[in-house]
Amino acid sequence: MKYTNLGKSDLKVSRICMGCMGFGDAAAGQHSWTVDESRTREIIKHGLELGINFYDTAIAYQNGTSEQFVGKALRDFARRDEYVIATKFTPRTQEEIDSGVSGQQHIENYLNKSLENLGMDYVDLYICHMWDYHTPMEEIMEGLNNVVRAGKARYIGISNCFAWQLAKANYYARSQGFAEFVSIQGHLLM
Questions:
Q1: What is the CATH architecture of 3-185?
Q2: CA 23/CA 157 separation, integer angstroms
């Protein structure tokens, strides 16, 4: 397996990242085709044996059961310093907006739940799953900076956004002395 640093971070990751959207309780989310915990464990164990050390999940994958299955398998098969775990949070819900939950609180609440699901004290990469058009970007960047400063996330990333959004967010973060996005998961265009 070949390894590289993820962006400008010190995270040494395998060039192959195992996406974990296919893991989780098939009855608990939007996909009926996900694999159960037993099969998840087999796949992750085999991935570790092949040298894959980078695993990407999300709280939205099967209502957190992907995080639960992945976290337990990684804890059982590897030491914490032998893998890099990434997870993601989604935008605030309308219910959260109506009840006054700020962007910062939303991020902290979701990360706390993800850490509980994973059975871990921190994640290596916390990813904004998609741009939140109902929350000021400044709130998102401050919330992400807060979880980095608290030691709950080592680095931050973003997926499903436009280049101008990434540039604007990182420019703002830099101007405030906040953590900047070190990775992006973009759309694959062929």
A1: Alpha-Beta Barrel (3.20)
A2: 21
Domains of the chain: which residue ranges? 3-185
The confidence score (pLDDT) of residue 190 equals: 62
Listed in sequence order, the residues at least 6 apart from 186 whose beta carbon sits closer than 8 Å to its beta carbon are: 159
Say which DSSP state 152 is in: S
Place of tokens 């871990």: 120
Per the CB < 8 A criterion, the answer to whether 34 and 26 are in contact is yes
Is 61 among the residues known to form the active site? yes
Please state whether the predicted TM-score (pTM) of the whole model is above 0.90.
Answer: yes
Distance CA 122, CA 84 (A): 11
Single out the catalytic residue among 61, 83, 110, 155: 61
**Per-10-residue mean pLDDT for the chain, 190 residues long?**
96 97 94 96 98 97 97 98 98 96 97 98 97 95 98 97 94 98 82
Nearest to 173 by CA among 165, 162, 181: 181
Please say whether the beta carbons of 154 and 189 come within 8 A.
Answer: no
Residues in Cβ contact with 124 at an 8 Å cutoff, skipping those fewer than 6 apart:
11, 84, 85, 86, 153, 154, 155
H/E run at residue 26? none
Question: How far is it, in rounded angstroms, from Cα 97 to Cα 18?
Answer: 33
12-14/3-5 β-pairing: antiparallel
- Strand-pair category, 84-89 with 123-128: parallel
Residue 186, pLDDT score: 80
